[in-house]
Amino acid sequence: MGIAIGDYLHTGRPSLYVTNFSDENDLLYRNDGNWNFTTYLTPRVWPCLPCRSVQMGHCFADFG
Questions:
Q1: Rounded CA gap, 9 and 58, in Å?
Q2: Is the pLDDT higher at 24 or at 36?
Q3: What is the pTM of this model?
Q4: pLDDT tens, position by position, 22-35
Q5: At residue 49, what are phi and psi to the nearest 5 degrees?
Q6: Greatest pairwise CA separation for the chain in angstroms
Q7: What is the chain's mean pLDDT, rounded?
Q8: Which contacts qualify for 28-31: CB closer than 8 Å, 24 or more apart?
Q9: What is the pLDDT of residues 37-64, one digit of tens each?
Q10: Residue 15: its H or E element
Q11: Cβ distance 26 to 19 under 8 Å?
């Protein structure tokens, strides 16, 4: 249900993080250069039983 773009590997290449709807895993698309991406499934880290079917927002942040 959303997408965030950021350079979490500090390579100068933006990667994509996509949240999905209704009990689907989120996806991380790591930018390997030349706009080639490797797809990673991300497990549900924070299960929310009453609201487990909707994820609406996320962001990339660099605290380093």
A1: 18
A2: 36
A3: 0.69
A4: 677 788 899 999 98
A5: -55, -45
A6: 41
A7: 76
A8: none
A9: 999 876 655 455 455 556 666 666 666 5
A10: strand 15-19
A11: yes
